[in-house]
Amino acid sequence: MEYAISAENISKSYRLYAGPRAMLKEMLLNIRGHELFTALHPLSFQIPPGESFGIIGNNGAGKSTLLKLLAGTSIPSTGEFKIDGKVGALLELGVGFHPDHTGRENIYFNGAIMGLKRQEVEDRIDEIIAFSELEQFIDEPVKTYSSGMYLRLGFSVATGFDFPILIIDEALAVGDQKFQMKCTKRIMEFKENGGTILFCSHNLHQVKVLCDRAVWLHEGRSMFLGSARETVEAYQDFLRINNEKSDREMITKAPSDDQLCWIEHLAITDREGNPIRTIQTQGSMLVSIEAYIGPDFSGEPNLGVIISRSDGLVIFSTTSRENGAILEKCDDNRYKGRLLIDNIPLMDGRYNVVAVVVDTYALHVFDISDTKLEFNVECPSPNPGIISLSHRWLH
Q1: Dihedral angle, C-alpha 170, 93, 76, 200, nearest 10 °
Q2: Domains in the chain and their CATH numbers?
Q3: Nearest-5° angle of CA 41, CA 44, CA 46?
Q4: Cβ pair 200, 63 in contact under 8 A
Q5: CA 146 to CA 166: how far, in whole Å?
Q6: For residue range 343-367, what is the model confidence (pLDDT) as tens digits?
């Protein structure tokens, strides 16, 4: 079978020197002065024509290293790979642009770097300029461009030629929302027309929607290779397990002498009290809070829960007094509260839970839990969004 991309045991290692002296000693006296760092351990895979292949993993996992090898901007330390056709690469948009030359001149320069003849660039340059929406500025030096203009030109050049293979490192869409829609449409049309895509991203939703298969890298090693959904789920399980190991569900703190009250314990569990870090859309979770409420606290104790998205957007908040709940009193100064949240409508993503102690009227916040407990939501639908609303299409 013919493959668009075939890699056999490719790896990449770098020599790390303590400084120029160590390098000089090694060169002149043949005394080893470096440590070897392996950014990518031997990796093999094949990508047939027309497949979209994803690469996921934490920062430093070796994703960008792999893409640079396949794009030809870096040489593998071991192994070999074959690529059937020319490659358009969106590694760092605009890399290779000369600031003193115009946008038009840089299009020609980049075409030459990609191995294109001048006539081939001539045939497409008007379309590239039109797509970038920079007609008014195309004959100005790119050093006068804003960052958005720079990125738009970079994307337009990288995707403006009929290459059969496209390598994308995060930059799926750039610029304002209108231009992002154009970028996404161009990528999807490339895929629908049988183009081969190698896509690296931290956006797991995009990987699931765009890619057929994916590989998960961790510390330069392949941990899982399978369908995009299976690979993303394996990676999310890894993140969940590590979250449980790192922060568990216990929160402790050393309150200051003048504090009236504070959060002592926060947990996310299922109904039976088992710690959880992943729930399904329309699933449920139990948030348990323990707090110290000092004798000088005035009024009824009031505990609150705040759920926010990973970017800080508050999704939900409530307090025990608002719901008429009676907190369990453990001793003279400690109270427990449990909040059961059913039919959670959240869609795919990472979310955080914090607990607070507020006054009776929820006007003053006395304490916020030191640690945000993170949980993941998995949704069977690939559609983007924050919540899954009950709906039906009418005939």
Answers
A1: 10
A2: 5-239 (3.40.50.300), 256-378 (2.70.50.60)
A3: 150
A4: yes
A5: 26
A6: 999 998 889 999 999 887 776 788 8
